Amino acid sequence: MLWFANPANFLWLANRLIPWLAGLSAAVLAVGLYLAFFVAPADYQQGETVRIMFIHVPAAWLSMFCYGLMAVAALGTLVWRHPLADAAQQAAAPIGAAFTFICLVTGSLWGKPMWGTWWVWDARLTSVLVLFIIYLGLIALWRTIEEPALAGRAAAILTLVGCVNLPIIKFSVDWWNTLHQPASVFRLGGPTIYSSMLWPLLTMALGATLLFLTLHLMATRNEILRRRLRRLSILAVQDGRAVPGAEGARP
Amino acid sequence: MSDHTAYIAAAYGLTVIVVLGMIAAIVIDRRRIERALARFPSRGSETDQRS
After folding, report:
1. Is residue B48 situated within a structural domain?
2. Is residue B20 part of a domain?
3. What is the predicted pLDDT for the residue at A95?
4. Which of A95, A222, A245 sits opposite B29 (nearest CB)?
5. Domain-embedded: residue B2
6. Chain B: nearest CA to A118, how far in angstroms?
7. A52–B47 CB contact, under 8 Å
8. A49, B49: Cβ pair inside 8 Å?
9. Pick from A55, A229, A232: CB nearest B15
10. C-alpha distances out from residue B22 to A96, A135, A140, B11, B48, Å
11. Do A98 and B22 touch (CB under 8 A)?
12. Rounded Cα–Cα distance for residues A106 and A130 (Å)
């Protein structure tokens, strides 16, 4: 694990893992889409609209998984001051925001024909919207503070504070009377979904998770390289040389 | 399929656009950084070096 935490070793491993992970995620997603459209039956109440769930649920799962991963990375930044932890956290934020956006919009596209409305301010929907705003706030924070180490620490603190929202999202449907249905996959008594729909859903969730891991590895690799470029640019300035390629050295 | 085909198509279409957008943004970012790093001939191309 410590070997992997070295940025140079991480780059070496990432360069070898990414093509395999990308291929595997494409294959699993292809199988998942086949199962979702040609094997899973239409729901007896929702009809064909239930097929939106095969992307909405994995996106919702990833929006929270990504934030959990960022919280672990935030601890790595604050406790061990590890540069890879900060790079991993910064790389994850836009991907997490994108999956949260997919979750919100696909939920809205499902809600209109099923609930008769695009949006309601119920606890589940509102807490996921808050998660999306936290992601945007974190991205803005990294872009606003010029000193990367300071930005990393500030973002890590905000990430850990925002963690309080995760149990609120998960248990909002139990704590409050919401329009959103209660948990039907990850629950103590086991899934309540019939297996003909559960397996396509789990396959899509696995494919989406593999896609997330691929994108996160790629984005973390970019962050490490961007920091290397920044270091080289600073060294060039200190040596009194011109800075080649400074346009890529975003703080 | 059903009366709700437009909602299903919109949900999947938007997801494809966002995911492809993410992939494109990351790949373009990588190429931009690699180009900038390549201008530092002595140390810039060490993107695959292990310690």
Report:
1. no
2. yes
3. 97
4. A222
5. yes
6. 11
7. no
8. no
9. A55
10. 11, 15, 18, 17, 23
11. yes
12. 17
Residue-range definition of the domain harbouring residue B5: 1-37
State the Cα–Cα distance between residues A214 and A208, nearest whole angstrom: 10
Give the closest residue to A218 by CA, choosing from A46, A33, A17.
A17
Residues in chain B within 8 Å Cβ distance of A249: 36
pLDDT tens for residues A102-135? Answer: 999 999 999 999 989 999 999 999 999 999 999 9
- The total number of structural domains in chain B stands at 1
Q: What is the pLDDT of residue A251?
A: 46
Asked if the Cβ–Cβ distance from A222 to B33 is below 8 Å, we say yes
Q: Do A52 and B11 touch (CB under 8 A)?
A: yes
- CA B40 to centroid of chain Cα atoms: 24
| Tens-place pLDDT, residues A152-183 | 999 999 999 999 999 999 988 888 887 887 77
Cβ neighbours around A27 below 10 Å, total: 12
What are the tens digits of pLDDT across the range A48-102? 889 999 999 999 999 999 999 999 999 999 998 888 899 999 999 999 999 999 9
B1 part of contact set with chain A, CB < 8 Å: yes
How much is the average pLDDT of A224-241?
A: 85
Give the ipTM of the model, two decimals please. Answer: 0.88
- A49:B1 CB<8 A: no
B3 located within any domain: yes
